[in-house]
Structure formats: structure tokens, C-alpha cells
């Protein structure tokens, strides 16, 4: 058969499936812009700034509407009220994780961030228990943070006030706090292993928001074998997992079943207890992925917030002066700040919250999915559909919140 005939037949089948799928969903999913066959709404969106495109579409279709990324329908939530209703008021029904192909390729549905069902429940429950045992939310972790903050201050002092890019330093500090929990290690800021690990985090953080990765997540089967930045992300994640595996092997050699010292020890002991359970979720692959999840979630988000926070304080010296005055008055110069100071520092607390709100750190949140057919407002969201919540409020709301905070 002629190749052109085969292509026409395949294209016709894809168009038929797309139109059938769209008719099947009609009357259930929220309205949205009319999609094109195969490509969906991808040509109607600026993939260089999806967040801005979503805001514009919300002006026409309201806070809840449907977009097609390729042939895949995605319900988009825009604004605080819609997002709150799904993630808080109906959190159980929408507790599933939607597909994100660039991550699924490596994680294979394991860990905490990109898993679903029983794997997610057991791994999340166990991880929270261990993190609490390791001091999260307690004074023990506060002491670690204070010590690391002093290390960061000393590293900044070594610049002698000369111009510098603090990106690596601001990444080293939160990374070391996470390392103390996971590996019970503290790396010097000049340690090549630490710097290489941070380089991978920074590079992946930059790449995941690029147009190519947006296209890859829309057409993974088509673009997977093409050259592109998705291969760099896969390579970086593979190298990070090698680093984690090396640390796990060291822990296996020194493991004391009766005296766990860090997150990896707790997980290895759990693996040992369930080694005869063929259906156990506590496997070596799940340990590697879970450690990577905790690492990436705790490191990159914190370092980015610190980086943008410094930029905003530089841009608004009048705000910086008020924060400094409150810190000098409440904390002074002879000790480190602690959580007990928070209630006495309302202005600094408001500024920190305003920084987190203003920088819009993750404008497109991780995709959620319905775990059952759910009625949401006047729509019906079937279990098979994905939910991608866009955590971005209207400009008018943002300005009023800023005024109230400061």
C-alpha cells in the first residue's frame, strides 16, 4: 500500500477518535475554546507564557473551562475560589495525580509527587511519619535551620560586599537542611558533589517551563525520540538518582535496625520488615524516587523563594528598611531568630507571605485528577479526565492583597 494512503488512513482514524471523544464529553466538561483535531487548543495558547494565556482565556470563559492539549481534555481552574474548592473543599475526590509525561518517564508512578492509589497513600503516610520523627515542625529542625543560616551568612560575608550571583549559595543552604534529614550529611558549600546536584536542580527547574517541554508533555509519544531539552532533563534526573543510590548503598553497609539515623535508614528498615510481602510498596526503586521527591520539593522551591525575595527587597528599599528595623528591635544582633519571634514580628511575617504570593512560584500547579466521577459546580468531571489547576489570581485581587499585607 502506498505510504501516502497509509498516512491518510491513520490521520482519518485520529480525527475520528478526537471528534468521538469530544462528542462523548459534550455536556459534561466545562465549555472552552473550540479545539482543532489532533493538536487541540495548542495553537491558541502562547506556550512561552501559558499562565498569561490562561488568564486571558479566563476573561472569556470564566474561572472553570476546558482546554485540549493535543487530544487530551484538561479542565483548567483559574483564581482562588475555584482552586480552593477543588484542592481543599473537594480534596478527596480530586486527590489523584494527573499525568506529566516528562516526569512519568523517569519516576514510573513511584514516590510521592507523581504517584497514585495505594503507592501514594502508603508512601505519603510513611514519609510524613518519618519526617515528623526527624523533627519537621519541631524545635530540632529549627536548630538545624539556624545553624545552616549562620553558614549562609558566613559564606555571604566572604564576598566582602563585592557584586556576586548568590544563586548557588541560596541553593546550598536549603539543600543542606534536606541532606541532614535524608542523609545525615552536611556538605561544604564548595563540595563538588553538592554543586553538581544543585546544578541539575537549577537546570531542570529552568527547562520544565520552556515551550519544548510543554510540547513534549502534550505529544510525548511523538517527541520522545526527537532531540530536545527533554533528554537533558532525563540525563540530569538519572545522574541525581545515581547519587541517591550511592548514598543508599553506604547506609545499607552501616544500617542499625534498632537505631535509625535518617530518612533512608527508616525506609530501609521498613523494606526489611516487608521483604516477604510480594505486594509491598517499599522497594528500592520507590526509595530512590521518594528521596528524589523530598529532595527536589524541599530544595528548589525554597532556594527560588529566597532568590526572588532578595530581588524584591532590593527593589523596595523602604520595605527592607522596615523589616530590618523590626528584626533589630525584636531579635537584635546577638542571636539567631526563632519561631517564637514570629508573633512579635507582624510586618516581617506579612512581607514573607507577600513575597510567596507575589512571585507566583508555580503558576501552573501539578496536574490533579478525579478519583471518581465528580460533580463540580454545574459540571461532571469523569474519573478519566485530568485537572490542571492554575494558581493565579486576578491582578486586581493581587493588588488589594498587597495593600492589606503591607
Which helices and strands appear, and what pairs or packs with what?
Elements: H1 3-25, H2 50-61, E1 64-69, E2 72-78, H3 80-89, E3 96-97, H4 101-107, H5 117-133, H6 139-157, H7 167-182, H8 192-207, H9 211-218, H10 220-223, H11 229-254, H12 263-273, H13 284-315, H14 317-330, H15 346-358, E4 368-369, E5 374-376, E6 379-381, E7 386-390, H16 395-405
Parallel strand pairs: 2-7
Antiparallel strand pairs: 1-2, 3-4, 4-7, 5-6
Description:
This protein has 406 residues and is α+β, with helices and mostly antiparallel strands. It folds into two domains: 1-98 and 380-406, no CATH class; 101-315, Cytochrome P450 (Cytochrome p450). 59% of the residues lie in helices and 7% in strands. The chain has 16 helices and seven strands. The chain has helices at residues 3-25, 50-61, 80-89, 101-107, 117-133, 139-157, 167-182, 192-207, 211-218, 220-223, 229-254, 263-273, 284-315, 317-330, 346-358, 395-405, and strands at 64-69, 72-78, 96-97, 368-369, 374-376, 379-381, 386-390. It has a five-stranded mixed sheet with strand order 1-2-7-4-3. Strands 5-6 form a two-stranded antiparallel sheet. The protein is globular. Mean pLDDT is 82; it is low at 22-27 and 389-406.
